[in-house]
Description:
Elements: H1 2-19, H2 23-36, H3 40-57, H4 62-75, H5 81-101, H6 106-122, H7 124-145, H8 150-167, H9 172-187, H10 201-212
Helix pairs in contact: 1-3, 2-3, 2-4, 3-4, 4-5, 4-6, 5-6, 6-7, 6-8, 7-8, 8-9, 8-10, 9-10
Amino acid sequence: MKKNLILMIGVFLATVALANGQFEKAMGKNIPAMFSAKTPEEMQDVLNQLNRIGEAEGDRWEPYYYVAFGYLRMSEMFETAEDKDKYLDLALAAVAKGEEIKPNDSELEAMRGYVNMIKLTVDPASRGMTYSGLAFQSFQKAIALDPNNPRAQFLLGRMQYGTAQFMGSGTDEACGSLFKALILFDKEEKSDNPFAPTWGKGATEEAIKQLCEKDN
């Protein structure tokens, strides 16, 4: 009962703040905090705030996108498959909440694929067939929804590279996707939405350096 009361108070306070035009301020504070969180406790505090923002606002998908990303990052802070799956499932639930608000969104679909790609890595031997299919399906759908989405192209390249390594096949296709992602990042225009995802260029450059230029 006490926990429910605290949650209700938190949602009420968030609603009051957002009603006073503080959505931008709250998101501007919590998105960087999600990326910088170093411990599960720090991350959970940020994700609680983002969930409250999403619940209070009601018609914005962005809080749930970053909740999903946060739970994905949180899963990497644990060692056991049980813990990893717990947070990855919460990430998928957050993606689903975002999609209720904005169906068929390229960024949300790419995030869904990202989560399923990480779920695959928890146990590649037993999950390869199921989760590789789910991840590829999401990345391809995200690209179809927005061919200029560099994050979808980057994640596709990472998935292709991992699959090639697992199968013992060539990585030319994967590196082609990564180079294409980098071109898209260079062309990406600043969105009118200040909370639209912008991450990924540095990770793409690092992936190309480590995976595609290692023999140069």
